[in-house]
Structures are given as structure tokens and as C-alpha cells.
Specification:
Number of domains: 1
CATH topology: Beta-galactosidase, Chain A, domain 5
Radius of gyration: 19 Å
Number of strands: 21
Strand order of the largest sheet: 6-7-8-9-21-18-17-12-15
Helix content: under 10%
Strand content: 35-45%
Shape: globular
Structural class: mainly beta
Order of helices and strands: EEEEEEEHEEEEEEEEEEEEHEE
Largest sheet: 9 strands, antiparallel
CATH architecture: Distorted Sandwich
Length: 314
């Protein structure tokens, strides 16, 4: 029966890079590149693109793909000798040939499991052995779910510490008509002011200039309202206490070679993250983080979504 089809297609993408296309019965889809373990497209049943991907994105080794959902590991930001946001988004992941099954109570069919492990080159710049697993799944209703598991596989008895983020680029119609709900009254670190700590004052976050903030101790659910499109993105997360909100605005957009001058108007990054308090794993220990994003018709106010669709009730 058609409802029993498993919609997972392995094919070639830009510049011949390997990618996987996930499809659900109703027409929703997602594309995942093995380079970076990166989701680059997520479309609803009307084939409308929900993620932003720059028209100038480069699909070449050693350069992160600008848009979609890059994986920031083992660090978020630019600290020490590691490259910006770590190296996971600049490495080729492999497909797990024997993935663990979904619980029998779920009806997920379209999913892929990827693995990234240490290489001898990586050990030179980050002297630890690890295994990073990523499951990308498309729910029957079109929800996009990412689950990461990171294990310390050091054999020398050493712990390691890391920070992490799903650097999600949402496609929005007009950034000046977007608001984010769920982060009001929270403390944040302002990356434009040397990570100085402030408290959010507005009823909701709106945008009229560059923003680069790390919100702390955030709720498990955040809403991004695109008034122009009458669409709301709902982000649910687990194991990721922080949330990064970023838009480069006009000056920074023009300074980025892989970003169109006016593309800042059509994107907003809201990132489930663990930044303020890094995670430490002893050998053999594993960390798990998860985000689920869905797109629902507006209008929507934070906290009023159907509780049956909540993250932990699936």
C-alpha cells in the first residue's frame, strides 16, 4: 500500500555532493546533505520552502553551507583555535547502516541516521575521540525533527567539554513583520556587546536592526510569527536550554561573500542551543539534544498551541 512506502531517496545534490531526500505521503519533504550532516530544505505539503538557503551558498569542502540547519559542534561561536562554530558542519557524515528503530508507537517512516566520528586530522585540533549521531525525521504532519547524541569515546580517561547549536535559518517573508514569542523577560548575552548580560524588556521580539543574542534558560517552546505569510513556526526543544536569535541586517549581509545583500530581509535564525553552560562528558557518557519544528497557520500566541502536539506527548 502507498501508505507503507518508506520515502527515503539517496541521490546527488549541488556539485555532486551526496544528499538524502525525505518525503511524506502528504507531500512534505526535507533534504539532508551528508556534507555537514545538514538539512538544506524543508517543504510543507504545498511545496513551500520553510527554511532559508542563500542564493550564494557554496557547496564546497571546508566551507559551511549558508542556510538550512548547520550543526554547531564542538563549539558555538569563535573561541580559541577551532574554526567558527566548530568543525561538524564542515565534515562529511556517513549514513548509519543499522539505525535504532523508532518506538513502535510512532508512525514515522521518513528518517535518516547519520554518524560523524573523530578523524586523526580532527584530533590534532580538538584532542578528543567522540561519536556524534544525528537523526533527521519528517513526521506524518510534516514536522521536522532533529535528534543528536554525542558520546565520549576517549580511551585515555579524559573528559571533554563542548557547546552545541542547531543553527536553524527560517525563511520569512519580511523580517520587519516578524515577531518571536516565548523569550520575553529573559536574560540574554548580547554578542554585539562582548556578550554583556541584559534582560529582554519587550512583550515580544521584533526586528529593525542587527541582532545577535543568546537567550538563557529558555522555555521548551518558542514561536516565530511571520505576519506577512500568516504562518507561525513553533520550535520545541529538549536538552538545549539556550536560544540564539540572529539576523545580520544590511551592513553585515553585504560583507558576507556567501550571502545576498538583501537576503537578510527573508531570514531569521532562531537556534536551539547549549552555550552558556558547556556540557562535559566523561568517557562512555552520552548527551542527547532534540529539536522539533512545525509550521502552523497564524495567528498564534505562545502557550496556546494544541497540547496534543506538544513535544513529549508524541
Amino acid at each position: 500500500m502507498s501508505s507503507e512506502k518508506v520515502h527515503v531517496e539517496h541521490c546527488k545534490g549541488v556539485n555532486g555532493l551526496d544528499k538524502v531526500i525525505l518525503r511524506e505521503i502528504r507531500g512534505c519533504s526535507a533534504e539532508v546533505y551528508l556534507y555537514g550532516g545538514q538539512v538544506t530544505s524543508w517543504k510543507n505539503e504545498l511545496r513551500e520552502e520553510l527554511l532559508f538557503l542563500s542564493s550564494k551558498a557554496t557547496f564546497k569542502p571546508h566551507k559551511a553551507i549558508r542556510g538550512g540547519i548547520p550543526i554547531c559542534f564542538p563549539q558555538f561561536g569563535n573561541i580559541g583555535s577551532l574554526e567558527q562554530h566548530g568543525f561538524a558542519r564542515n565534515r562529511v557524515w556517513s549514513v548509519d547502516p543499522d539505525p535504532p528503530p523508532f518506538p513502535s508507537t510512532t508512525s514515522h517512516r521518513a528518517f535518516i541516521d547519520l554518524i560523524l566520528g573523530h578523524s586523526e586530522e580532527d584530533v590534532k585540533i580538538w584532542p578528543h575521540r567522540y561519536e556524534c549521531r544525528l537523526r533527521v525525521a519528517l513526521g506524518p504532519g510534516g514536522d521536522l525533527m532533529l535528534t543528536s547524541r554525542i558520546r565520549n569515546t576517549n580511551t585515555d580517561g579524559k573528559s571533554f567539554t563542548f557547546t552545541f547549536a542547531y543553527h536553524t535559518y527560517f525563511f520569512v517573508t519580511d523580517i520587519s513583520e516578524v515577531r518571536v514569542e516565548g523569550l520575553e523577560t529573559l536574560d540574554y548575552l548580547d554578542n554585539l556587546k562582548n556578550r554583556e548580560r541584559f534582560t529582554e524588556q519587550g512583550d515580544a521580539i521584533t526586528f529593525e536592526s542587527e541582532v545577535d543574542k543568546i537567550y538563557l534558560s529558555t522555555p521548551t517552546k518558542i514561536a516565530i510569527l511571520d505576519h506577512e505569510r500568516k504562518r507561525t513556526f513553533v520550535l520545541r526543544k529538549d536538552g538545549l536550554p539556550d536560544a540564539v536569535v540572529w539576523n545580520p541586517w544590511d551592513k553585515k549581509a553585504k560583507a558576507m561573500a556567501d550571502f545576498g545583500d538583501d537576503e537578510y530581509k527573508h531570514m531569521l535564525c532562531v537556534e536551539a542551543a547549549c552555550v552558556e553552560k558547556p556540557i562535559t562528558l566523561k568517557p562512555g557518557e552520552e548527551w542527547r539534544g532534540r529539536q522539533e519544528i512545525s509550521a502552523v497557520p497564524s495567528s498564534y500566541c505562545s502557550g496556546q498551541l494544541d497540547p496534543q502536539r506538544a513535544l513529549f506527548n508524541r
